[in-house]
Design brief:
Blueprint lengths: L1 E2 L5 E2 L1 E5 L28 H14 L4 E5 L9 H9 L6 E6 L4 H11 L3 E5 L5 H8 L4 H13 L6 E5 L9 H11 L2 E5 L18 H9 L4 E3 L11 E5 L5 E5 L12 E4 L4 E3 L8 E2 L1 H5 L4 H13 L19 H4 L2
Parallel strand pairs: 3-4, 3-12, 4-5, 5-6, 6-7, 7-8, 8-11
Antiparallel strand pairs: 1-2, 9-10, 10-11, 12-13, 13-14
Helix pairs in contact: 1-9, 2-3, 3-5
The protein binds S-adenosylmethionine.
């Protein structure tokens, strides 16, 4: 098992499949993109599946979420999902994606064993989409959402980051859109993870502001039937239910004390937190011939050193050197 010295146990593995993306969301990366990781540094499919097998078979990981960068850009993704679904014990498998191409791929992914998707959608306005993501792809994302639902990848969750003066007036419309389509809406506070280091606390739209904004149209009440557990989102029933909305207050109400996550980057580094300043190299050991027991022990030691919190609110906080897309959001 992957236990740390604060009594937490990691069971949820977030895996970045590539640092590349076909959008350029301003809260994530600059218009010109990033210096992408060289191909030789990325784990091959076989290397990745071997590490996932160790995670599931020896370390108690029960959930695997593929992310990035944009995971749909990873060649052979349905094959990776199928091989993950064949691991014993079989983990829950989910995907966080911008949805571009999902309309086409959702059926194959579902057939391969994908259980659920989270699709990122920050706006319903095509011009705002271009301003935010610097690409004209809103229609593709909407089609991707519909494709996911049609393929049975449910519940389809929608993630939005609100940016002050850009899309912060759209909270109500986004939630209404999700209610109308049977998707589950979640708003995420903007975190200091952009490659440009442009995050400013005063610009962040807080969870309380999002709640206020939604309360202008909906009545949000506690969702007592749902145990929060280690889930990052605070859930509220909308107008008495059954629709619900999640608000993820990563910055203003951190939930590190119940964190059950660990991350594997596309180049084979273990990270305990989005904001970790240290990584533990598994790829080097793997390519040097380490056996499964050795790799598992390295992974255990890496997680044992997990810090108690993400530190965003500490006076000397420094953003991690690697951007979100490399870490895997
Ligand atoms: N490309 C995929 C996607 O768009 O969902 C997966 C990777 S993306 C980094 C994962 C999630 O992180 C997205 O929902 C995105 O909106 C969110 N994200 C990226 N940068 C963020 C930031 N600075 N603060 C909060 N969320 C962020």
């Amino acid at each position: 098992m992957l236990a740390d010295s604060y009594g937490r146990v990691a069971t949820d593995l977030r895996v970045s499949l590539t640092d590349r993306c076909n959008l350029r969301c301003s809260y994530c990366m600059p218009p010109e993109g990033l210096d992408w990781l060289p191909g030789a540094e990325q784990l091959t499919d076989d290397e990745l599946i071997r590490l996932l097998g160790i995670a599931v078979g020896r370390l108690g990981i029960t959930e695997i979420r593929f992310t990035g960068g944009e995971p749909l850009l990873r060649r052979g993704l349905p094959g990776i999902v199928a091989r993950t679904a064949a691991l014993v014990p079989r983990p829950e498998i989910s995907l966080t994606t911008n949805g571009i191409g999902l309309g086409r791929l959702a059926g194959a992914l579902r057939e391969a064993g994908l259980d659920r998707v989270n699709v990122s959608l920050d706006t319903l306005d095509a011009a705002t989409f271009v301003r935010l993501a610097r690409r004209d792809r809103l229609a593709d994302v909407i089609a991707g959402l519909a494709g996911a639902a049609a393929a049975g990848l449910v519940p389809v969750k929608v993630n939005a980051v609100l940016m002050r003066g850009v899309n912060d007036h759209e909270a109500v419309d986004l939630l209404q859109f999700c209610i109308d389509h049977g998707y589950q809406m979640r708003f995420i506070e903007q975190m200091p993870l952009d490659a440009q280091h442009g995050w400013r606390r005063a610009d962040m739209v807080t969870a309380d502001e999002i709640f206020q904004s939604l309360s202008g149209k909906f009545t949000l009440g506690p969702d007592t039937a749902h145990q929060r557990g280690s889930a990052p989102a605070e859930r509220f029933l909308v107008d008495g239910g059954p629709a619900a909305v999640g608000i993820i207050a990563s910055v203003t109400r951190p939930f590190c004390g119940s964190c059950d996550r660990v991350r594997l980057t596309s180049d084979g580094q273990v990270r305990n937190c989005l904001f970790a300043r240290q990584e533990s190299d598994l790829r080097g050991a793997l390519r040097a011939g380490a056996d499964d027991a050795e790799l598992a022990e390295r992974w255990r030691r890496a997680v044992a050193g997990k810090l108690p919190g993400h530190g965003i609110n500490d006076p000397g906080f420094l953003q991690p050197a690697r951007p979100m897309s490399a870490i895997g959001g």
